[in-house]
Each structure stands twice: as C-alpha cells, then as structure tokens.
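Exercise 7.
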Amino acid sequence: MSLWLALAIGNSRLHWAAFSDSRLLHNWDSDYWTAAAIAQFAADPASAGLSIASEVSLQAPVPLAIASVVPAQTDLWQQYPAQQILTLADVPLAKMYPTLGIDRALTLWGAICSLGAPVLVIDAGTALTFTAADRANTLLGGAILPGLRLQQQALAQDTAALPLVALQPDLNLLPPRWATDTPTAIRSGILYTLLASLQDFACDWLLQEPEGAIALTGGDSALLHQALSQQNPALAARIHRDPALIFRGIPALRNWSLI
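Solution. The predicted structure, written as tokens, is:
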C-alpha cells in the first residue's frame, strides 16, 4: 500500500487527507504547526499524533502534496523533504486568472472529478465563495464574501458595543428573523444574509444550467446546509455536501516522481 498525505493550508486551519494510492482513507483538521513540529514529523511521523497514525504504518518522510493560501505557512512547509506544492499550473481548468486561490481551483476540480461538469462549488469557510465551471472544464467565475465567523468577528472587533456571539447550538432551530435582543439580531442578520446569498447564487446557477451540479464544502457547510434544509428543502436536496471536496481531484494531480 502506497500511503501519502495531502495538506490544504487554509486561513485558519490545516486540512488533512490520507490516501492509499488514489483512495481517500480519512480526512481531518488541525491547528497550524510550528517549524519544529514539521521537522519532527519529517523525521518521525508517528510522533505527530495524526488521526491516521493508529490505523496504518507511517514511514518517514511521508509523501505530502500541499495546497496553501497562506504564504507564511507555505514557507514553513517548503522545508519538508518529500513535498509537492500544488499551484494553479497543476490544475487542468481553462481560463483561470492569476489571483484565483488554489483552494478555489482545487475544490472546483474536485467537484468535477466527483460530480462532473457543469458544476457550482460553494465553499463555506473563512470566506464564503462561489466558483463555477462549464461542461468544458472552463472557469466561469464566481464571487467571494465574508463567511459566518468572519462576519461575527468583524462585528465584535469593529464596533464598540456588539458582542461576539455564536449561533444557536441546535441547528434544527433557526433564529427568529425579527429579533428582540442584540445577540439574536446578530445571529439573524448573519445567518439569513448568508442563506440569501447561497440561495441567490444557487438559483441563478440552476437557471443557467438546470441540470448542473452544486457542491457545498467548508467548515460551516453542515450548519448552512441544515439551515437551508429548513428554509428551502427542495434546493437543499439539489446540493451535494462534501467536507473533503478539495481533496477529491488531488490524486490526479500528484507528481509521483516528486513525492
């Protein structure tokens, strides 16, 4: 069995996947690592306590495919001895622009590999992004707006009196739209605005591509999909949620001569 790892470095977390050849075994998230932790992992993979470590034998150094949107983190991981840094040049999509994030390109490519094209990808992470491709695997474009937690943090940090609030722990209970207290008003404003954005882009996509696929991924995808299921169950049923979407197409991009 040829075991290797993929690492997607996001704006707030590390996103991991373990593969056996081209088969995805497991995916998980972690906090950022220090340079010392990376060096230790290269020498002794078992010392890192990875989720997959108890299930398979990790031989040092574990081959690692890396996609990053955080330059400082990219610099750290470039010191890892058995790595391939994925760039836009590795992704077989037409008409990508130079500043397109590698995360958006990879989630779109992963959606094409798993669902086919045309496809719209909605990534509910630090930012909420919409990215679409046509039947010829050509990038059609998309949009970016602040995600759920980024909006929460902005209100708390950039206002004098508004608190940092979490959404209600019960995902089966949407907040009242017309709130009568400040924390609930924040929950209402953020959640219903994000849901409105999601529905608007998804509905416009289906007008253009009635049989087109829609994929939802990212750390807040479960929360938004559950909320959408209550508000618009027919649309929610059209959306395929896949937390590991960014990894689906990476095996086809891996340079086996490098890692």
